[in-house]
Design goal:
By secondary structure, this protein is α/β, with parallel strands linked by helices. The protein contains 17 helices and 25 strands. The chain has a nine-stranded mixed β-sheet with strand order 2-1-10-9-11-12-13-14-15. A seven-stranded mixed β-sheet has the order 6-5-3-4-7-8-18, sandwiched between helices.
């Protein structure tokens, strides 16, 4: 049976087995796990889970990034069933929703989520719970005894669901995106055309593993290219850790690059130094980075490679080639996909649509939403308004989230919401709408204490308004606890 994931595991074991691979901070020191050890543990856990009756079942992974998270993800995808990543930052009701939605039979969890897990055990007595800290080692040990040898388990087909990734949501719960192994490996060739990753590289992994880009492009593709992966700690420790690790690969969102830019200005330390001194490949996605910030990185020889994609396209759509001078595009279209623009206007802007191995298998248990996401001739409709010129992708906004203001101007609610979410690390979501002829935003805040700091939020919104066009300025805002998000 064809399984690209197992093929890459076998290749990595043979080529790089004795090399250090994954590094996680323990007792303030990055502790390594070799390629061989990681792949052996993947086989042992796969054996354990299949022997315990979880074959073709949906298994959740709940917690922050960790080596155990990575072992479980690959073992489930390759050999067992469907890996379902749950965000460590979700509310309890959201976790309950995900367990019900995906019909989880097992939840592998980090003890840092134990408060919720104790409640979940009572609500879901039929679910098997495996603690990464208390049970995981025992499962591996039992799996090792049961294992008949490496790569002896029958792998899953490339074309059956292997991974569930939840889309980003704001005031409604996100959809569950079904991905196959073929989907997961749809983008590595186009990535290789852009960057010559190899065993000499180090990736500092900051993005969460329950999202497609961090999971696929930073982690899983390391099995293709053979680079080392260091798991980031807290945001406040990132600069210190990168100066310790000296990575060559980093993927982030604009708010992170902005914070490093401001830290460099405040401290008088160069950006290249703050990123460890050896950085070669910076990827930026999720929103547009201010051109002057991008220029500051470029002045230090750090060319930002913009990326654009969706969970539904397995994070494969467009990425810049290195040293790209075009500040407006969101990357060069991947060569392995078929992308078109539906109903373009006179400037060539319309809805971006795509076919290819990158396109997901549908939304879990949501046939209506799946059907609505595709055109009659089988193109996935991204919902993003953009154009493609000379192979480069340009975005204007979301098809379904454009607001018409009283003055006739159209603004992208999605883009404004992304800007608001970047105001402060405590912002978990934002909802933009027009009320009383004013552009209004509801800001959902994780830290309850900050809800009362009206002056701080007024200053943050005022600063944001100073950077945008007049008709994109926020006229009113309301503060809410993240607990009030609709489930």
């Amino acid at each position: 049976m064809t399984n690209q994931l197992q093929s890459f595991l076998q290749q990595a074991y043979e080529k790089w087995g004795e090399r250090d691979y994954l590094f996680e901070k323990k007792n303030d020191v990055f502790s390594p796990v070799t390629f061989a050890s990681f792949i052996e543990q993947v086989n042992w856990l796969g054996t354990y889970l299949t022997r315990k009756g979880f074959q073709d079942q949906n298994i959740g992974i709940y917690g922050p990034n960790s080596v155990e998270w990575m072992i479980a993800d690959i073992a489930i995808m390759c050999y067992v069933g469907c890996s379902v990543g749950l965000s460590k930052d979700w509310s309890y009701d959201n976790v309950v929703y995900a367990i019900k939605k995906c019909e989880l039979s097992c939840l592998i969890y980090d003890e840092r989520q134990v408060e919720f897990v104790e409640k979940l055990r009572k609500e879901f007595p039929q679910v098997t719970f495996i603690s990464m800290q208390k049970d995981f080692a025992g499962c591996l040990k039992e799996g090792e005894k049961l294992c008949d040898g490496l790569f002896m388990i029958e792998p899953k087909s490339d074309d059956v669901p292997a991974k569930v990734v939840f889309t980003s949501g704001t005031t409604s719960f996100p959809k569950a995106v079904l991905l196959s192994i073929r989907n997961v490996f749809s983008g590595w060739r186009s990535l290789r055309r852009r960057v010559p990753f190899g065993a000499q590289d180090r990736c500092y992994l900051f993005l969460p593993l329950n999202h497609t880009y961090g999971s696929i492009y930073n982690f899983i593709y390391s099995l293709v290219f053979g680079y080392e992966v260091y798991l980031a700690g807290s945001i406040s420790d990132m600069a210190q850790e990168m100066m310790e690790v000296h990575p060559t690969i980093f993927s982030g969102v604009p708010v992170i690059y902005m914070r490093f830019y401001e830290a460099a200005k405040d401290s008088g330390v160069g950006l290249q130094t703050l990123f460890g001194g050896r950085m070669k490949y910076l990827f930026c996605g999720g929103a547009k980075l201010d051109p002057h910030v991008r220029d500051a990185y470029r002045a230090e020889g750090m060319y930002m490679m913009n990326a654009y994609a969706l969970s539904e396209t397995s994070s494969a759509f467009s990425i810049d080639y290195p040293n790209e001078e075009d500040m407006e595009s969101v990357g060069t279209l991947f060569e392995d996909i078929d992308a078109v623009v539906f109903d373009p206007d006179e400037e060539g802007y319309g809805e971006l649509a795509v076919k290819g191995d990158n396109v997901f298998q549908g939304y879990f248990h949501d046939d209506e939403a799946t059907k609505a996401a595709f055109s009659e001739d089988g193109y996935f409709l991204t919902g993003d308004i953009g154009c493609i010129r000379d192979g480069k992708v340009y975005l204007k906004g979301r098809k379904d989230t454009r607001l018409t203001l009283p003055n006739g101007e159209n603004v992208s609610a999605k883009m404004l919401e992304q800007r608001v979410c970047g105001l402060h690390e405590s912002v978990s979501a934002a909802k933009v709408y027009v009320r009383n002829d004013k552009l209004t935003v509801d800001i959902y805040v994780k830290d309850r204490e900050l809800l009362n700091d009206q002056d701080m939020w007024e200053k943050l919104v005022e600063e944001l308004n100073s950077k945008v066009s007049r008709y994109e300025r926020i006229g009113m805002f309301n503060l809410y606890s993240s607990e009030k998000l609709l489930k």
